[in-house]
Amino acid sequence: MEDKAKTTKKAPTEKVEIVTKKAPTEKVEAVTKKIERTVTGKVTSNKMDKTITVLVVRKVKHPLYGKYINQSNKFHAHDEKNEINEGDIVQITEHKPISKSKSWVLTKVVSKGQQG
């Protein structure tokens, strides 16, 4: 058998000039907009001082069966004036933590509940 010598082709060498440019030294201020989470829900408790409990219900489609399921979360929200009663529909916005469990603030009252 014959031994085949390995031959390698050499690529033609080309001279490439590398040009480097300095970035402009001006300060560019990045504009970051904070995304505010706002949710609407029903007040379930106002027994605490300056705090309300809001039940937020959302409908989620089941991934396999396609049925819509009600999922809910309870949030503690800050009510500075203690003016909200149970049954009111309110809008709350995420805020920096006020206490261990309270990191939402009352934004507005959508509708008052029935008093009776």
For the sheet with most strands, the description reads: 5 strands, mixed, barrel
Identify the CATH class of the domain at 38-111.
Mainly Beta
In terms of quaternary structure, what is this?
single chain
Strand order of the largest sheet: 1-2-3-5-4
Amino-to-carboxy terminus distance: 106 Å
What is the radius of gyration computed over CA atoms, rounded to a whole number of angstroms?
A: 31 Å
Please indicate the percent range of residues in DSSP E strands (runs of 2 or more).
35-45%
Mean pLDDT: 87
Any idea what the CATH superfamily of the domain at 38-111 is called? Nucleic acid-binding proteins
Order of helices and strands: EEEEE
> What is the count of helical runs?
0
Query: What is the CATH topology classification name of the domain at 38-111?
Result: OB fold (Dihydrolipoamide Acetyltransferase, E2P)
Number of strands: 5
CATH architecture of the domain at 38-111: Beta Barrel
Structural class: mainly beta
What shape does the CA trace take?
A: elongated
Contiguous runs where pLDDT drops below 50 for at least 5 residues? none
Helical percentage: under 10%
